[in-house]
Amino acid sequence: MDCEHPHHLDAALAALGDDPAATVLAGGTDVMVDLSFGQPHPVHVIALRRVVESAEWQEGRIGAGVTYRRLERGPPGALAQASRTVGSPQIRNTGTIGGNVATASPAGDTLPVIAACDAAIEVASRDGGVRVVSWADFFTGVKQTSLRPGELVTAIVFPDPMPAHHEFAKIGVRNAMVISMVSACVTRSEDGTTRVALGSVAPTPLRATAAEEMISAETNPGESALTEFSRLVSAAVRPITDHRGTESYRRHASGVLARRLLERCLRREPR
After folding, report:
1. pLDDT tens, 56-108?
2. Domains in the chain, start-ordered, CATH in brackets?
3. How far apart, in whole angstroms, are the C-alpha atoms of residue 45 and residue 5?
4. 3-state SS, residue 4
5. How far is CA 217 from CA 9, 193, 195, 213, in A?
6. The 2-4 sheet, strands edge to edge
7. Residue 100 in 3-state DSSP?
8. Which of 45, 94, 138, 183 could form a Cys-Cys staple with 199, CB 3.0–4.6 A?
9. Which 8-state DSSP code applies to residue 226?
């Protein structure tokens, strides 16, 4: 196995441009799991851990190599909340936001935050330069993205300003080191504009737009509005039944979780 360790982004892009089929290694938390389950060993690996540009974090632009350990400290708050739920301390010290995005698992913990905040994915290649892709165009299916051959995820770009309030939580079969059965992020701006995104309930991160439109029109949502919000979220998801949970449970839990997160946002609003 041939392994390269570029120290700068240009060198990493050149290596991937020469061999677009190479295995890109960020934190390795997904690649190593695949190998443990018998996937063929890669022939050529491009390891990104030493690429200095990938660790940069400037305001709302978070480099792809920033680890969950750093993200835990925030801001933004919802991203910190999501990062604290990822694996063990060892995983959080190694895993990166760029790896989570590029892997594009429906259960990726940072993905609902990215979707709810309308963040974008910055990608680059040796021959195509830099382009910025909306989250909705980037995630195309289960572990599928719109990355082109030779492209790397270089950063995640959050909007400025961020919504005033944002909350994340997930549900799983245990309290620690759990892959989510349902995950959600809810944001609410000072003008009442509300966004809700969910993970593990569709092939890609999903926004419950009907629920968003309804609750955004409510200046001070009461019990009936919260109940309808929950119902609309449950109606929007497209879950499956698998070894972690049933379709019906995921649908019910989506509405309950989204409502609880919205209530957290509302408690933070000035009255």
Report:
1. 999 899 999 999 999 999 888 999 999 999 988 898 999 999 999 999 999 99
2. 165-268 (3.30.390.50)
3. 9
4. strand
5. 45, 8, 12, 7
6. 2-4, 44-47, 23-25
7. helix
8. 183
9. H
